[in-house]
Specification:
Layout (H helix, E strand, L loop, with lengths): L3 H11 L4 E4 L6 H10 L3 E4 L3 H15 L3 E5 L3 H4 L2 H10 L3 E7 L25 E5 L5 H11 L15 E7 L3 H6 L14 E2 L12 H9 L3 E5 L8 H11 L3 E3 L29 E5 L6 H12 L8 E5 L11 E3 L3 H11 L7 H19 L5 H10 L5 E5 L3 H7 L10 E4 L10 H10 L5 E6 H6 L4 H7 L3 E7 L4 H4 L3 H4 L2 H9 L6 H7 L3 E5 L2 H11 L5 E7 L2 H19 L1
Parallel strand pairs: 1-2, 1-3, 3-4, 4-6, 5-6, 7-12, 8-9, 8-10, 10-11, 11-12, 13-14, 13-15, 15-16, 16-18, 17-18
Helix pairs in contact: 1-2, 1-6, 3-5, 9-11, 12-23, 13-14, 13-22, 15-17
């Protein structure tokens, strides 16, 4: 491999820097690989970025040479901060290299995308931001120049300390196969912002008015919301436009709404006909397929009169890249639409989507083998009315999002840290929700995310909080084995730096914190334990054992059936 990443590795090695701490992530793949494959660095694989940074600090303190830190984008970067502050105040050299998303995705609502440039402020001696289309030679010489802050033999007048190199990268699979980010082609120039508090037709571009009046294939999409919408009002809009309502798993409308569409993630990129209008309420949906498809519709239509994408959000353009944002109350917008547009009486599109969703529902419901998906299904089915379901990042949220309506008419409050999608702090957040709720609480989380926030069990013990934690225990980051990256890397390297199995006996952790614990490996056992734990008002842990390989096989078989079902 010979690229900017490997040349940075070579440069740092040449300058006498040998120790590296790498935390797992997809975005930092090429960066991590450059240091691992170089062959001469002492690479350490550490899941928790906060500990990784302190560990790096300790090594730098003892050896008086900088340690290199490498992590993925998002809150992983923020987890380095405490150790960076200490390094700055104590004059200890660190080379912090963080992977970032392409800069044009900032404020677009894209997953794990936050402002990382200059994130550590004055606590680093030098900030270097490397864009996707960087000037190769200049970048290397800028990095070399900044190494004076971490050099062992320091010139008089230079105070050693941490330096930060923030690198914008494409997804590993994308850059390997396509060479360029698909997002770069996004046409964001046509963005319209309607600056008005109440809905006003005059502020809308003509094309959007035209599409609101003439649509025959509209879609309503309810994305992530922290609070419930008025279902009656949404139904009125849906009836007026004959628009299917796609409800996100975090929309607070997914699991109890008989008329809504829930399983779109499985077929949305396979539709025979395109919608001509999308009306979104709430934050970007969890489903990557749906988000990509909306972008595709926005960027691939004959002209603006053939498709409109509208976001109704009082917060205006806050972390979203919808071409037209209408910052007014959704009730106000809906009221005007219902009272002043003719509506749509063509039900073909509605029927088509409903039919697809029903087909999907029977395929998903028939899947009952022990897998991560059916663990998620059993958790959902165990919920009572008004119960809180907190959903961990990585695969748990994706599994919940793959599931549809329940057979019972109950409301489930769904929560997840999807703002920046970190795997940190998930138990703490769920405990915060539980502490301030009257009802029962369930947390569905992966084992690495659990271990990342293990300290939070102190809170649970201190306040005796009523929460059942179901850990999907596949001994590592299962998400990576489902991605193309797993096929292109050496098995051992992939295991050590991406999957990062920790081989921790969760029973022993539970014992240390006086927490009730059960290990389960069948749906029956899981259901029985979930039922039993509902009667115990304290913290309980269910350790759901999963074999990654079997799970992968079940998922790919299910995907084949889904593909056949939508063909
Ligand atoms: C703070 C933070 N560090 C790293 C990541 C990158 N990351 C995304 S998913 C994942 C693995 C999570 O593993 P686990 O919680 O066991 O869930 P699974 O992948 O098995 O579903 C990692 C490390 C992240 N999102 N947030």
């Amino acid at each position: 491999m010979n690229n900017i990443y490997s040349d940075i590795a070579k440069l740092l090695y040449k300058r006498g820097i040998y120790n590296v701490c790498i935390s797992p992530g997809l975005r930092n793949t090429e960066l991590s690989l450059s240091f691992i494959q170089h062959g001469k660095f002492n690479c350490h694989s550490i899941v928790d970025e906060r500990s990784a940074a302190y560990f790096a600090l300790g090594m730098a303190l003892k050896t008086n040479t900088p340690t290199i830190l490498i992590c993925t984008s998002g809150t992983a970067v923020a987890n380095y901060f405490p150790a960076i502050i200490e390094a700055s105040q104590s004059r200890i050299p660190l080379v912090v290299i963080t992977a970032d998303r392409p800069a044009n995705l900032l404020n677009s609502g894209e997953n794990q995308t936050i402002e990382q440039r200059n994130i550590y402020g004055n606590f680093v001696r030098k900030n270097i931001d490397i864009p996707l289309d960087n000037e190769y030679d200049y970048t290397l010489s800028e990095i070399d120049e900044s190494l004076k802050f971490v050099a062992k033999k320091n010139d008089i007048g230079i105070t050693p300390g941490p330096i930060h190199i923030n690198m914008h990268l494409d997804d590993f699979k994308t850059s390997q196969s396509l060479g360029k980010s698909k997002y770069l082609s996004k046409n964001l120039k046509s963005k319209k912002i309607i600056l008005n508090d109440t809905f006003n037709w005059q502020m809308l571009p003509f094309e959007d008015i035209f599409n609101l009046y003439t649509c025959k294939r509209p879609l309503i999409i309810i994305g992530r919301l922290n609070h419930k919408l008025n279902k009656r009002v949404i139904t009125q809009l849906s009836n007026h436009l004959r628009a299917p309502v796609l409800v996100d798993s975090l929309s607070q409308m997914r699991f109890n709404n008989k008329s809504s569409i829930a399983l779109y993630d499985h077929y949305i990129n396979n539709l025979n006909v395109k919608p001509d209008l999308v009306i979104r309420i709430g934050q970007k949906p969890v489903s990557k397929n749906l988000c990509n498809q909306i972008h595709y519709w926005e960027n691939n239509n004959i002209n603006r009169m053939s498709f409109s994408s509208l976001l109704i959000d009082k917060a205006n353009r806050f972390n979203d890249d919808c071409p037209t944002v209408i910052p007014c109350k959704y009730e106000d917008f809906i009221d005007v639409i219902i009272n002043s547009t003719p509506g749509n009486n063509n039900t073909d599109f509605y029927d088509y989507i409903l039919n697809l969703d029903n087909k999907m529902s029977s395929i998903i419901n028939n899947e009952d083998r022990w897998s991560e998906l059916t663990i998620a299904k059993a958790c959902l089915s165990s919920m009572d009315d008004n119960q809180n379901l907190f959903i961990g990042n990585s695969m748990p949220i994706r599994y919940i999002d793959m599931l549809g309506k329940l057979n019972k008419d109950i409301h489930i409050n769904t929560y997840s840290n999807r703002g920046a999608s970190g795997i940190d702090g998930i138990i703490s957040t769920a405990l915060g929700v539980a502490q301030t709720s009257k009802g029962k609480n369930l947390l569905l989380i992966g084992d690495l995310s659990f271990l990342h926030d293990q300290n939070s069990l102190l809170i649970a013990k201190q306040y005796n909080i009523d929460l059942t934690i179901v850990i999907i225990n596949n001994n590592g980051g299962g998400i990576f084995s489902l991605l193309p990256v797993s096929k292109s890397l050496n098995r051992n390297i992939f295991n050590e730096y991406w999957t990062t199995p920790q081989n921790i006996d969760l029973k022993k952790i539970s014992t240390a914190y006086d927490v009730k614990y059960s290990k389960v490996d069948t749906i029956g056992k899981l259901e029985t334990t979930l039922k039993k734990y509902k009667t115990i008002p304290s913290l309980k842990i269910i350790d759901a054992q999963i074999d990654m390989k079997i799970n992968k096989k079940i998922l790919s078989e299910l995907k084949k059936r889904i593909k056949k079902g939508t063909a």
